[in-house]
Each structure stands twice: as structure tokens, then as C-alpha cells.
Amino acid sequence: MKKIWSFISVMVLGILVLTGCGGGTTVKMATGGNTGTYYAYGTALGQILGDKADLRFNIQSTGASKANIQLIDAKEVDMAIVQNDVMDYAYNGTDLFEADGAVKSFSAMAGLYAEVVQIIARPGSGIESIADLKGKNVSVGDAGSGVEFNAKQILDAYGISFDDISKQNLGFAASADAYKDGKIDAFFATAGAPTTAIMDLVSSQSILILGVDGDKASDLMTKHPFYTTYVIPGGTYTGVDEDVTTLAVKATFIVSNELSEEVVYNMTKALFESKDAISEAHQKGAELDLSYAVEGISIPFHKGAEKYFKEAGALK
Questions:
Q1: pLDDT per residue over 93-132, tens digit each?
Q2: What Pfam families has UniProt attached to this entry (predicted)?
């Protein structure tokens, strides 16, 4: 009951869009804030997949990953876009879901695109690697956010705890402002690259992007299988000319276990058969890839998605 009431506030604030001209089945999709990538991506997909999968999509603006999982659990929506690390926490009842307990009412459909762990540091601050963050002023994202857990896990791999830094809990834009004002030496941002707040920052400030060493990355991926490696190409941000290898989580479609195998199979098939149209509608559509869709997914796939990926050769 405690959970259900928390969902009501999310749903009251949600913006609902009916999209697609498909058949009689309506699929309710939770996305994110109506100015964010999840909402725009979900809306674009709903328009394209409606006819392709013979469905009608009801797109809802929500509070993003954790709220979306709770909405599926409350049977308020049928599918959602979430970060795959938050998905893992929910399924296993850890970190962000330690207090709430495990949620098993959903399964994975497909990984969509990378959300990159970007660790930004100030040149001349004595920081050349993640190990140098010890003793520095570092923003690790909003308190209780997925970014904060990414920061905690990566710092831990280097033997650094939050007690070893002057920790600040700031969102991306606030972190960039604090960086400009000289109040922090570094900050974490987990988002698609390039990220707007960092793009704005480099218009007036120099930055370094810290890489995650190969052995540390391997250890982190073993311990937290939702991570994948990701190369931020040189030139992504002004003044950062070399490639930087870091870790990424991924935006992922999850679905209610109550959705039929046929519906989820048709949605998954339509998703990958519509890549060109999705790419035209939203830039993140270009990242759709069969191999990437199943990599770093640490919970079971829905039977419908599994059936498609086996047919397509992405799963054995």
C-alpha cells in the first residue's frame, strides 16, 4: 500500500499521449520527464511501432527509472524505459531498492542505447586519474540517484570511499555550475554522450575526462554485470581530443510479465525491423543493435523477446 500511494503522485503529474494507429491492444509505456530523452524516444517509438506491431501505445511522462519499475509492479503500465543498473537493483532488491525489496514482476525486452559514466575533472587540480579523486571536492550526482551508485561503485574499485572525498550531491547542471565557480574539482554524470550540461560547460571551461582502467573495468563488470565498456570518441567535447574508455549502463525496455509472449515478440521484432525509421525520428535510434541489445542485461528476458533474439541469432 505504501508503494501504491507513491505511484499516484507520479501518475497525477504524468503527461499522457496516445500514439500509433494499431489494433485493439493498447500498451501503456512509462518514459521520463517530458523534456527528457526517455519521453522523446518513447514517443517516437510509439508512433513508428504502432502500425508495425499492430498495437496502440499510451505514452506516459513519469519520474524515470525507479518510478517506472514501481509503476509496472503496481500494474499501472505495461512497459517502461529504465537504466539497466536500476533494473538490476530492483530485480535483486539491492542499492536503490534495498529498502523496498526485490521486484520480480517485470522482465527485459531490449537494451536501447548507452548512458555513459562521464567523470569530469579540472585540469591543473592534480587529478589525472580516478585514483587522484581522493581528498578532492567531488559531486556524485543527486542523493539516492543511479549516478551516485555508479560513483560509489567506481570509486570503490579504486579503494576510495565517499568518506575519502569531499562529497557533494548535485545534478548535472548544478555540478557544471559548481565547476565553473571553482567549488568542485570533479563530477560524475551518467547520461548519453554528448551531455548538454557538459557541452555547455566546455564552451567556457577546460575539462579532462577520466578513463576507467582496463583491470578495474573488468572487475566492475564481473561484480556488476549491468556495466559495459564504452569509448567516448575524441572530439565529442571541445578540448578533449583523445578517445577515453569508460563504463556505461544502458537505457533498456522492460515489460510486465503479464504481457503476452505474442505481444512482446511482435514489439521486439518491430523495434529492430524499424531501425531506419527510428533513427530518422530520434538520434538515439542509430544505436539500436542486436548484439548490444542483449549485452549487459543481468535479468531474464521476457519469453517473447527471447524468442525473437534467438531467431535473430543474438541469443543461443
A1: 999 999 999 999 999 999 999 999 999 999 999 999 999 9
A2: NMT1_3
